[in-house]
Write a structure and sequence with these properties.
alpha+beta; 4 domains; 5-stranded mixed β-sheet; 4-stranded antiparallel β-sheet; 54% helix; elongated
């Protein structure tokens, strides 16, 4: 097939494949848009339904509460009078007790002031000291050295000076808690502006603790009674008629609506009820996906949200749907309910999976068929080229012996040559040798044909590998000498008996050694070894020839394939030798491996199971 035809086929198939892909893309995109529109309509309807239910629920609860209040109003009014009388009596009693205790507390404080004034009159420099300071520094004599008396003179004007003595500690130590609530004073005695001694004066507490506690308790009781009295002064609205589909009555009093509208938005909204109704309405419309809730008031402040993010771009990436809350208020709507779907696209794709999977499978099948067709076309083109090369090589190989036979035959027709027996004998030998050579070429081609049709007869007899290898090397010794080659032989296998065909095994080794000679640029150096490994015998044939690349190494067992040698055509053959070698080795339950590096040489490793051993099928 011509290159132009292949290009045309590839172009047409590519256009057809791209057309199918474009149609599938258009169909998927339109389906996605339709599904997205249906999703938007379903979510919007669910939000509107939830907003209506929330408003109706608020009205129902308010009406129910008003009914309950109206039923209890009469009883509450009667009970209120009795409670007010009781509260008033209790208040009067408590107030009398408070007055009596306040009088006792005042008398006690007067007594304390008299004692303090008497002390100041006797000792003007008496210093008040805190009980914790007293217990820490004064009562414990070892810490009295840390006490510091600071004399501070405050100028009062017109020649008057007020002297004040402050008591401090030079060094801080953990304070000892006070043991009582008595009032204590320190009386220092100075000499030469230094304190030589000090005395403690103890007075009664400034406040009578028991009386103070009783006063506080009675005052708390009085506050509680006043609070109860204020609670009973709450005003109630008239009964609210039930509306919202359950009843067609009109509101009896417009003040009920005003009360609802003035109620704080946070108190009007039941978040638990909101989430429950949202889930129910979305599930009713076959929407079972996670979503985030956001509720804002009329000042756009967020009242509640489930998505906590400081980045405003995060919410913009999600699909957002909103509706107003309490839209029927007398004034503007006080709230906005929004929900976000972070995975809207993936949800819609999941609903389209029943369409996507068959379409993807069909597209993969088309691409696979396209790729397979191209591989077949290129493979057939490659086989065609290889067969053409094979025909050229075969023609060249056949032409040489045929031309030689023709020249020898023409020479025999010459009477002068025909009269010379020696010359006739030599020409006859040439014709015979060339016929043998021609027959060998034909036999090799026929063997490959038989291998393909599996008609090649292979005997399964006992064969000694060492003997076969040695015989092949002996027969090729002359050819190796002509190439000035060096042969290294190491026949080390102690057990070499296998089941095989001696003739075909000889041909296998002959082909490998022949290739080692032909594909050596300079004087060939060939190493042949045999050795045992487990239940196998291994034969290696290594050379220092031109070697192979990785790509060439993968193709050497293909029929008609020959390693390219550039513009030099000194390597003869049909490209059938290694294909034949590979086939024979496999038929004899063996393995063949190749190790090669460009310009460094090649190693062929053949493994055959010994007689009586289980064949190793691993590659």
């Amino acid at each position: 097939m011509k290159k132009r035809s292949i290009t045309l086929i590839i172009g047409l198939m590519s256009v057809a494949l791209m057309g199918v892909m474009a149609m599938q893309y258009y169909f998927i995109r339109e389906s996605f848009k339709q599904k997205s529109q249906l999703f938007d309509e379903a979510v919007t309807a669910a939000l509107a339904s939830v907003a209506g239910k929330i408003e109706k629920q608020e009205i129902f609860e308010f009406a129910r509460e008003q009914d309950r209040i109206n039923q209890e109003k009469f009883k509450a009014d009667q009970a209120m009078r009795e409670r007010n009388e009781q509260l008033l009596a209790s208040q009067l009693t408590i107030q009398e007790k408070i007055k009596e205790l306040q009088r006792q507390q005042f008398d006690y404080q007067q007594r304390y002031r008299e004692e303090e004034e008497n002390l100041k009159a006797l000792v003007p420099n008496a210093i008040y000291v805190d009980n914790a300071f007293y217990e820490t520094y004064i009562r414990r004599k070892r810490y009295q050295a840390y006490i510091d008396f600071n004399v501070v003179n405050n100028y009062l004007g017109e020649g008057y000076i007020d002297t004040d003595i402050k008591l401090t500690a030079k060094r801080g130590v953990p304070l000892v808690p006070a043991k009582d609530d008595s009032t204590r004073f320190i009386i220092p005695y100075f000499r030469n502006n230094r304190v030589e001694a000090m005395q403690t004066a103890t007075l009664i507490p400034r406040v009578h603790r028991k009386i103070a506690d009783e006063l506080q308790e009675l005052e708390s009781q009085l506050v509680v009674l006043n609070a109860k009295k204020l609670q009973q002064a709450t005003t109630l609205f008239d009964t609210l008629a039930i509306i919202g589909g359950k009843s067609e009555h009109i509101l009896k009093d417009i003040e009920s609506s005003i009360l609802l509208a003035k109620k704080p938005f946070r108190e009007r909204l039941n978040i638990k009820y909101l989430k429950k109704e949202l889930d129910a309405e979305l599930n009713k419309r076959d929407i079972y996906v996670p979503f985030n809730i956001e509720v804002r008031d009329d000042q756009s402040y967020i009242i509640y949200e489930t998505l906590q993010s400081s980045n405003p771009k995060t919410k913009r990436q999600f699909a957002k749907y909103s509706t107003k809350l309490f839209e029927n208020d007398l004034n503007s709507s006080p709230g906005l309910l929004s929900i976000y779907f972070p995975n809207k696209s993936s949800v819609i794709r999941d609903t389209m999976s029943y369409m996507l999977l068959p379409m993807i499978a069909l597209l993969a099948l088309l691409i696979g068929a396209f790729a397979y067709t191209l591989s077949i076309i290129f493979r057939q083109k490659k086989i065609s080229e290889m067969k053409t090369d094979f025909m050229n090589n075969m023609t060249h190989e056949f032409k040489t012996p045929v031309a030689t036979i023709m020249i020898a035959s023409e020479s025999l027709r010459d009477p002068e040559i025909a009269a010379d027996g020696k010359r006739v004998n030599r020409l006859a030998n040439i014709i015979y040798d060339e016929n043998i050579r021609l027959g060998n070429h034909i036999e090799r081609v026929l063997n490959i044909a038989r291998l393909e049709k599996e008609n090649l007869k292979i005997e399964k007899v006992d064969v000694h590998i060492n003997a076969v290898v040695s015989g092949v090397l002996d027969s090729m010794n002359l050819q190796l000498q002509r190439a000035n080659g060096i042969l290294h032989v190491d026949i080390a296998a102690s057990n070499d008996l296998v089941i095989g065909d001696e003739l075909h095994l000889s041909n296998v080794f002959f082909n490998l050694v022949d290739n080692a000679i032909k594909y050596s640029k300079d004087a060939p150096e060939i190493t042949v070894k045999t050795y045992n490994a487990k239940h196998n015998i291994i034969v290696t044939i290594a050379d220092n020839g031109m070697g192979m690349t990785k790509d060439q190494k993968e193709k050497i067992f293909d029929q008609f394939y020959r390693i390219p040698t550039g513009n030099v055509h000194n390597v003869k053959g049909f490209g059938l030798g290694l294909s034949y070698v590979n086939d024979i080795v496999k038929r004899l339950n063996g393995k063949i491996q190749v190790k090669s590096e460009k310009d460094k040489g090649t190693i062929f490793e053949l493994t055959f199971p010994l007689k009586g051993a289980t064949p190793d099928r691993e590659v």
